[in-house]
Amino acid sequence: MTTNKHYPFSLLFLLFTSSVFAQFENNLKLRLDFQPIELELSPILDFNIGELELTKPLVFNKANDTLNVFPDIDLESRQYIKELGLYKRQLVRTFVTLGGYEWVNAEKTHDFWDNTKVTYGLGLLKSYTYVDPTSTQYQITANLEIEQPINSWLTASGKAMYVSNPIYKFNKSNGTLFKGNPLFMQNEAEINLNAHYNNVMVDIGLRSIFNGFSGGGKNLNLINTRMTIGF
Question: What pLDDT shows up at residue 11?
Answer without folding.
Answer: 55
